[in-house]
Amino acid sequence: MKFVADTHIVIWWYEANEALSAVDLRRLRTAEAHGPAVGVSAISLWEIALLHSRGRIALDLPLDEYLSRIEASPTFQVLPLEGRIAAESTRLGPAFPRDPVDRLVAATTRCHGLLLMTADESIRKSGVVALA
Question: What Rg value do the Cα atoms of the chain yield, rounded?
């Protein structure tokens, strides 16, 4: 595993959204076809459920099936939240966005020594997490 996908990357993959960069699309297609899988923080599953419950995203499947598809996918591997990740999320400093989900995704990336796939400019500009 080399990468962790931010929540929007996962959503864009399943939507075939044109916002997904050509580089990220190639990485995900490679993961799907040949591995290794791209990591997804467990908190991203919660964020998808929350966004769906608030009507901010529409899903092509019922929520439980959508989340199960991610969990069973050859493209993604869900990375659990652990104590070290919770602790690391508090060490990202003031340059990093305050959003708790973003902090946990970044901490997951850092704790596993991976690169983060994200289009979030505030995360990219923070310089706190290694980027894909």
Answer: 14
Please indicate, yes or no, if residue 38 is contained in any of the structural domains.
yes
- Pick left, alpha or beta for residue 35 (phi over 0 → left; psi -120 to 50 → alpha; otherwise beta): left
Query: What's this model's pTM, rounded to 2 decimal places?
Result: 0.95
φ/ψ of residue 41, rounded to 5: -65, 140
Residue 131 lies in a domain: no
Residue 23 lies in a domain: yes
pLDDT, tens only, 40-73: 999 999 999 999 999 999 999 999 999 999 999 9
Q: Label residue 77 exposed, middle or buried (CB < 10 Å: 0-12, 13-18, 19+).
A: middle
Give the range of the structural domain holding residue 95, as residue numbers without chain letter: 3-126
